[in-house]
Each structure stands twice: as C-alpha cells, then as structure tokens.
Amino acid sequence: MTVIDDDLTLVFTALADPTRRALLERLAEQGEAPVHQLAKPFAISQQAISKHLKVLENARLITRRQAAQTRLCAFDGDRLDHAADWIARHLAIWADRHDQLAAHLAALRATTDDADNRTDSDEGNNAR
Question: Are residues 37 and 52 in contact, defined by beta-carbon separation less than 8 angstroms?
Fold first, then answer.
C-alpha cells in the first residue's frame, strides 16, 4: 500500500475525523487553549486527544507551544485555506461539466421531441 503524505492529503485525512473537526472548531472559536481544556467536552482519554492533536499538528492545522508547564494549541487556518482553494477549483471544473451535460441532454430531448412530433404528424397524414 502506498502512503501519500502530501500536504493536501494530510489536511483531508485530519479533517476526516469528527473529533479532530470539533477540536479545530473549538480552537477557531476560542483561540489558543491548553490541551486539558480542549479535552474536557470529549468522552475520550487524554492520550486519544493527544493523538488527534498530533494528526492536526502534522497537517499543520494547529500549532503547539510550551508555556511554563502547559502546552498551548492554536488554530492555523493557512492549510485549511489551501484545501478550500483546491475544493473551489474542482467545484468550478465539475460545475462547467454539469452545465455541458445539461446542454447536451436538452439538445437530445429537443431532437427526440421533434422526431416524435414528425412521427405523430406522419401517422395523422397516413390516416386520412
């Protein structure tokens, strides 16, 4: 199995977990916070929270620093902006393709409707 660890993969992998997303939301809302405070609302061990924070740190979605005896975490949105830009680019590509498909289907429907109308008209002429 090939492990891809480019920045975008690390970000999407980090965002794939609901606990990590909740941790990011808490940090984005309240700013810098110590690990023990971030862990409070979750019914998981401190060790599990630390593992989630490590994944977020590896994806560079958070930064951690030591202040006396406390490790403080802070949200870093730069990598999230990079992921959002990637999504926006691909949304634009797919929106264009959907528009082209819709135009093609409309043209097919118009052609089919014209053929049906001609067939109905021909049947009417033959009946006379």
Answer: no
